[in-house]
Amino acid sequence: MDDDGTSTTATAAVAATTAATAVSVARSASGRSLDLPSSLQPPGDVDSPATVSPIKALPGVPDEVVRACRDAIESAAAPFGATSVRVSSAGSIRRLSPDTISAPVEVSIDYGRQGNVETRQAPIKCELNATGSVIGLT
């Protein structure tokens, strides 16, 4: 695992099919903003406790895909006041169509709330198109 928390294990086949994945945007291919899954958004109730445990990377998602997903998640979480975003591989990539893949990732986001840090954590699927742009977070 790299010091930025991303998994470094990838198969040659997956790496080859995702070699074009170098950058990501926080907008879908249609240009609309990506939505942050509700499980990763801060709750309206500041007193709501969150269960937080260390993120363990499961090999399978190449580093460049994890980075693209992290960049998109950071952009989607910024309007909520995110102060830190950690993303790691959570298993094997699944091909949804010839032009779309789904990458399972584990996400942990810190939010600054009334002088404290509130963390939200959840496994999500990060969908990317053939050019390596993130097109969905579910």
Give a written overview of the molecule.
Helix content is 15%, strand content 32%. It has 138 residues and is an alpha+beta fold. Strands 1, 2, 3, 4 and 5 form a five-stranded antiparallel sheet that branches. Strand 3 and strand 4 form a beta hairpin. The radius of gyration is 15 Å and the shape is globular. The two termini are 24 Å apart.
Give a topology summary.
Layout: H1 12-17, H2 63-77, E1 82-89, E2 94-97, E3 100-113, E4 116-129, E5 134-137
Antiparallel strand pairs: 1-3, 2-3, 3-4, 4-5
Brief synopsis:
This protein has 138 residues and is an alpha+beta fold.
Could you estimate the helical fraction of the residues in percent? 10-25%
SSE ordering? HHEEEEE
The low-confidence runs, each spanning 5 or more residues with pLDDT under 50, are: 1-30
Note the beta-strand portion. Answer: 25-35%
Work out the radius of gyration: 15 Å
Alpha-carbon distance between the two ends: 24 Å
Biggest sheet features? 5 strands, antiparallel
Overall, the morphology is globular
| Helix-strand category | alpha+beta
Query: How many extended strands?
Result: 5
Keywords summarizing the entry:
single chain; 138 residues; alpha+beta; five-stranded antiparallel sheet; 2 helices; 5 strands; globular; disordered N terminus
